[in-house]
Amino acid sequence: MPQISQFAENWYAASQIFWVLLTFGFVFFVIGRGMLPKIEATVDARDRKVADDLAAAKAAHAAADALEESYRQQSDASRAAAQKAVSDAKDKAAKDAEKRLAKVDAELADKLAAAEADVSAARKSAMAEIESVAAEAASDLVAKLSGVKVGAADAKSAVKAVLHG
Amino acid sequence: MADQGKVDPMHQFEVQKMFDMFHVGGHEVAFTTSAMWMIVAGLLLWVFMIGGMKRQLVPGRWQVAVEGFTGFISSMMNANIGPEGRKYTPYVFSLFMFILMLNVIGLAPLGLFGIHPFTVTSHFTITGFLAILSFAIVLIVGFWRHGLHFFSLFVPHGTPWWLLWLIPVIELVSFMVRPFSLALRLFVAMTAGHVLMKVFASFIIDGLAASPVIGLGVGIPSMALMVGISGLELLVAGIQAYVFALLTSLYLNDAINLH
Description:
- The complex is a heterodimer.
- Chain A is 92% helix and 0% strand.
- By secondary structure, chain A is mainly α.
- The longest helix of chain A has 135 residues, at 12-146.
- The N and C termini of chain A lie far apart (171 Å).
- A two-stranded antiparallel ribbon of chain B has the order 1-2.
- Classes of the chains: A mainly alpha, B mainly alpha.
């Protein structure tokens, strides 16, 4: 086995150790300490960027959700306000109509009452006129038939007695 | 080759000296095939990582591949140690990628291009160095963070008082065995796999040398097995690198979080 037998040779171990020290030193200092941290930094930066981007996307998603929610609330509120305005207007219109109707009713009632009063007054005056006309006619008839002059007052009371039973 | 015409399955593990360089403390330091493949692995790794340095927000294919490897180790450290493990990710990542690259290069079919491949991680000098490095880091971090309280690692929670004379000894032994198991596991797995492949390859060559009938009779099943074993070895190359990194992270967790 040369690995053991070559130990007897003066140069073997010294050369092996010298060269492994040199080459592994190169690998450690140039590659391990020089290049590896930069590559790791690149990987870390990428991982961080991906994580940041994901977080930003999540935040944007949440913001969009919140915006949609507030939009929905706003539209609900404005719809409710519109409905309230419409029903208020309807109520008001109905109340107005009622009031106007009531007023018109009252006016009509007044007019009716006045007309009825007029009618009864007219009837009263007509009755009075009939009385006097009937009294006149009765006194004329009496005068023509009997030649007796009847006083106006007598005729009137006699007619009244006949008319009113 | 030991003898001409014979395949020596151990020959592949021999480190060839390419040229001498200098002396340190009576020892000669040479540029070797092992050194060459470690440099190749380091450079390939560097080129691979450059592809991941575009740092785009939306990555291309290459960047995804690199980030896949870094993310694999980062998440492993995070799962085993927690947020404090991030500090040690560069070390464990370097360890994992370096071992993985060496394992895979050792399996690459470079022989087709006339290049002699060599598996650096089949030498316990290399795996031992990395294991002792990991173990030393665990010790340093443990004593740095917890001081002498780090020794409470040897007394697990819920130890009955009448076992206090035994459990710490067992825990100490298992703790001290860690660098050896770490080094030997990788070294043995790599060596065994490559020996196995070389043995099957030698079956084909020896069979054909004996006679065409034996050559085909032995060679075809051997070849089929080798295809399967090659796939298995690729898996082992990844798994062993992963196990080395995983155990290092678990040991670091002991040192950082103390149970």
